[in-house]
Amino acid sequence: MFRLLTGGLRKPKNRVLGGDISGRVEAVGSGVTQLKEGDEVFGCARAGLAEYVLAREKNLVKKPGNVGFDEAAAMPVAGITALQGLRKGGIMAGQKVLIYGSSGGVGTFAVQIAKAFGAEVTAVCGPNHMDGARSLGADHVVDYNSEDVTKSGEKYDLILAVNGFRSIFAFRRALAPEGVYVFVGSSKIWRALLTNLLLGPLISRLGKRKMSFMGIAKIKQDDLLYLAGLLESGKVKPLISKRYPLAEAAEAFRQIGDGHAGGKVVVTV
Ligand SMILES: NC(=O)c1ccc[n+]([C@@H]2O[C@H](COP(=O)([O-])OP(=O)(O)OC[C@H]3O[C@@H](n4cnc5c(N)ncnc54)[C@H](OP(=O)(O)O)[C@@H]3O)[C@@H](O)[C@H]2O)c1
Hints:
By secondary structure, the protein is an alpha/beta fold. 32% of the residues lie in helices and 22% in strands. The protein contains 9 helices and 11 strands. It has helices spanning 2-6, 69-73, 76-88, 105-116, 130-135, 168-173, 189-204, 221-233, 249-257, and strands at residues 20-24, 40-44, 60-62, 96-100, 120-125, 140-143, 156-161, 175-183, 210-213, 240-245, 264-268. The strands form 3 sheets. Strands 6-5-4-7-8-9 form a 6-stranded parallel β-sheet. Helix 7 links the parallel strand 8 (175-183) and strand 9. The two termini are 27 Å apart. NADP nicotinamide-adenine-dinucleotide phosphate is lined by residues 1-2, 77, 81, 101-107, 125-126, 129, 144, 162-163, 165, 184-187, 214, 216-217, 259-262.
């Protein structure tokens, strides 16, 4: 869905895809002050599926030494989205947090980041990814096929709706009296945006439960630094479901496209 908003309407804006990168700095421009040749970095760039990539200094940070290039490359956009979504929801230690869509790119980071904040995390995913969610530290794991988490009677202080498979009303039902719901994205973009942008603010006026949309994640160096810290401390470890060589990048996109990637898919060069 966000491809339409950010990647071009009728055809891709950039002919070479790939927004997340990690590698070694080959050369720097004259205005660059924080990085030098040979530094190992990760972050965001355009046309990242390549051997050489041009990136802005403000979109990169140094890669922790204890983390591989593949793991670091798995993190930027999905990690930033999870972090900004949880912050939008005002995440705090001790809160009960529900991550709906916990086994995709964004969700696997959201579970770990929420745990790093000290939250009690319930992860909702499909049956094949429940063990993965537990390995990421989720306190409770629910299979969306066998249980409707919005009808369990459990109430959450923060719900991060990573996908649009449930309605805004269903999520409202599962919110604590002053809870916050944050919508991240959906494959049914227009319907999801209409409900969340139009209905969300209206429904939020009916009480203290807040229904919000996080907007499009913004690449911020401070957030990349924060994520680098989580990687370095081991509090977050990217869950890579598969690695593809550059020649098979199209296959990597197909795997993501089926909506059950089970973490991040990485293309190695
Ligand atoms: N706001 C932003 O700036 C921003 C940034 C990045 C991404 N996004 C959006 O965020 C969304 C998620 O991205 P992602 O990369 O994490 O997606 P993804 O990897 O495709 O993950 C999808 C998640 O949805 C679950 N799912 C699949 N079918 C389901 C169903 N029928 N009922 C309930 N859950 C189901 C999957 O679980 P199983 O695989 O276990 O079945 C998985 O946990 C996308 O819509 C993307 O466009 C937004």
